[in-house]
Specification:
Elements lengths: L1 E5 L8 E5 L13 E2 L9 E2 L8 E6 L33 E2 L24 E6 L7 E7 L4 E7 L13 E4 L3 H8 L4 E6 L4 E9 L7 E10 L9 E12 L3 H23 L8 H30 L2 H12 L1 E10 L4 E7 L3 E7 L5 E5 L9 H10 L7 E2 L2 E2 L9 E2 L7 H10 L20 E6 L7 E5 L1 H4 L4 H15 L27 H4 L7 H6 L6 H4 L7 H10 L4 H9 L12 E8 L8 E4 L6 H9 L11
Antiparallel strand pairs: 1-2, 2-4, 3-5, 5-7, 6-9, 8-9, 8-10, 11-12, 11-25, 12-24, 13-14, 14-15, 15-16, 15-21, 16-22, 17-18, 17-23, 19-20, 23-24
Helix pairs in contact: 1-13, 2-3, 2-4, 3-4, 8-12
């Protein structure tokens, strides 16, 4: 039992909170729990007649280890994504405190562990007209929440060197969730009707990135209509944003060039499945060779530190990549995965519910197949996989960049001495240990059944299971059917469903798929909770809908708290999030156009797309 006192400032009111220490191996408390259910740690508070009695709730943040490496994003050279939270000048009255213990976070060593609090909150209602504001107080290893009364400024730091930030209101939290959302109608009659994208940064700047492109392909017969190649990619960067930005700029082009040569050289423009898979893999590995090896040649030839800074940055940072390629003529979807981002197919079954099928497998040191592959490639190296990480450091076993796992020790030290670089692992003996070659799966899409695919970086899968994600999209679709929204025309074949459960079937094969389980559920105590008590439908953009429910759904206090935490503190609780949802089908107009869906796109991004603003988001590409 740990006792923490929160001192009152400029008032005689005091509130003492007693927090529960939660073992990282024990069962977490429910995220928000009444004081009765946690009587062993109930808070005590001095009563102030003017302000009323204080009540308390408990927040558990039991430990989840940080995922591999860090993760970054940008457009080629982006403006850093600044936190929308802010802190003000000196203290006003702190009326209540929240203390927490138990979440794991990364500090230098990727395997180091440090506890963050199991939380207790006391809130007091003011009877006068004095405004009250909720705040977060962030310490080195503790997180508090409380209420300030008054309209004065809030200090940036306390005397205990704790940082104070004002809590986002529900309206501010929604604005932040929707800040980078995009939605596009694909009115081409080629089997795709719409795709939605949402991003939420945790790092500053965000290390994730994404790309979408549609390529019109002429058929061999002049009288035949052209078909479409459609690409969607999410890129989960770590140790910087530069590698993921490079993938956004170049990966689809590299893969499309290889596919073009493969299709042209095949009889009747119909290559074999093996040839298509090989072309995708070649596009991946050629781009990584340019990032990791050709860049070194240019740097050594130039012997210039500015050139080195430009070309070595994408090599020294790293990124996972998940790329989908849909051929509208064959209706085949190829998913190429390098790293631990994930794609999941949602398909409606005869029961009317949806089924969830993983189209990729997380490639980490904790995956037995990946660990066995590395041990086979590096025989006799006991620590080639250590604590689920490559050489004990990098969690993904496949990635772009991460040159310190691919260069020889001599080259790494030469570049570091002459220009700059990363320290070489003492365990490095026979590089390369990490490859960018993807694992490719092929799936026959059934647009007439309304198939959809969710692609997301691992930040989403840390919070939700495959079935929950598919069920949440299914629930969102049901909310669109019969609504007055323009989207209802694209989902007219679906009926409104049950209001009591997620419309998804349970699958034993998914539970044993080898993919990571949502560690944040254990951290926040969300396991075993009735889904309809956790989840909510209130966003026009389905990707934003998934992000909201990953953060807490109906629990608005939790959603606001997680969105209020500024970088780098937010990384203890959530990763960068990038989500794409692709809807297949033939509903909607067939004008041949690609149109921004303004009601599900952030206003600034919609305006930038309409104006062709080069500093804004790229317009839907054809």
């Amino acid at each position: 039992m740990r006792r923490a006192a929160v001192k009152a400032l400029r008032t005689s009111y005091q509130c003492t909170c007693r927090g529960l220490r939660v073992s990282s191996r024990g069962s977490p408390l429910p995220l928000l729990q009444s004081s009765k259910a946690a009587s062993s740690g109930s808070p005590t508070a001095h009563y102030n007649p003017r302000l009323g009695t204080a009540t308390a709730r408990y927040l558990s943040s039991t430990g989840a280890r940080d995922s591999s490496g860090t993760h970054h994003h940008s457009n080629a050279r982006p403006e850093p994504l600044r936190s929308s939270m802010y802190v003000r000048g000196a203290f006003v009255t702190l009326l209540s405190g929240l203390v927490a213990y138990g979440a794991w976070y990364n500090s230098g060593d990727s395997n180091s562990e440090s506890p963050i609090a199991s939380t207790t909150s006391a809130t007091t209602t003011a009877t006068g007209a004095v405004p009250t504001r909720s705040v977060l107080v962030i310490g080195a290893d503790e997180l508090h929440t409380g209420t300030f009364v008054g309209d004065g400024p809030i200090s940036k730091t306390t005397s205990d060197n704790e940082r104070v930030v004002e809590m986002l209101s529900p309206e501010q939290a929604t604005r932040k969730l929707r800040q980078y959302e995009q939605s596009v109608y694909v009115n081409r009659g080629q089997g795709v009707v719409r795709y939605d994208v949402a991003q939420l940064p945790s790092n500053d700047p965000i290390e994730d990135d994404h790309a979408e492109k549609i390529v019109e392909v002429p058929n061999k017969a002049p009288s035949s209509d052209p078909s479409d190649w459609m690409f969607w990619g999410v890129f989960d960067g770590h140790s910087g944003w530069t590698t993921s930005a490079k993938l956004r700029q170049a990966l689809i082009s590299f893969v499309a060039r290889e596919l073009n040569e493969t299709y042209k050289s095949s009889p009747d423009l119909i290559p074999s499945a093996a040839a298509v898979e090989s072309a995708i893999k070649t596009g991946f590995t050629r781009l990584d060779d340019e990032i990791v090896h050709q860049s070194v040649q240019r740097v050594l030839k130039s012997n210039n530190r500015l050139v080195a800074a430009e070309h070595l940055a994408p090599a020294l940072s790293g990124s996972c990549a998940l790329l989908s390629f849909y051929d509208s003529k064959s209706k085949l979807l190829r998913v190429a995965c390098t790293g631990d981002s994930r794609a999941v197919l949602g398909r409606r079954s005869e029961s009317g519910k949806w089924t969830a099928t993983a189209l990729s497998t997380d490639q980490t040191g904790s995956n037995p197949d990946e660990a066995a592959r590395l041990r086979k490639l590096h025989p006799g190296e006991e620590h080639v996989v250590r604590h689920g990480r490559v050489l004990g450091g990098l969690e993904p076993t496949r990635a772009f960049g991460d040159a310190s796992y691919k260069w020889s020790r001599e080259l790494s030290e030469k570049l570091r001495e002459k220009f700059f670089g990363r320290s070489v692992s003492p365990l490095l003996k026979t590089p390369p240990y990490v490859t960018a070659e993807p694992v490719v799966t092929t799936t026959k899409i059934e647009p007439e059944k309304g198939d959809f695919v969710v692609m997301a970086t691992d930040g989403l899968w840390e919070m939700l299971t495959n079935e929950e994600v598919v069920g949440l999209v299914g629930k969102w679709i049901e909310s669109q059917a019969g609504s007055s929204s323009k989207s209802s025309g694209y989902f007219s074949f679906l009926q409104k469903g049950s209001k009591t459960a997620l419309p998804v079937e349970s699958s034993e094969s998914e539970k044993n798929s080898g993919n990571k389980t949502p560690i944040r559920q254990r951290q926040w105590g969300a396991t075993g909770t009735d889904p309809m008590e956790r989840f909510v439908v209130q966003d026009k953009n389905v990707a934003t809908h998934l992000v909201r429910n990953a953060l807490g759904g109906k629990n608005q206090e939790q959603v606001s708290a997680l969105l209020t935490l500024p970088s780098p503190f937010s990384r203890r609780y959530r990763d960068d999030l990038t989500v794409q949802v692709i809807f297949f089908g033939y509903d909607g107009p067939k004008t041949g156009e690609i149109v921004v869906n303004k009601e599900a796109t952030a206003a600034a991004l919609a305006a930038a797309a309409a104006d062709g603003n080069k500093t804004g988001p790229v317009k839907p590409k054809l």
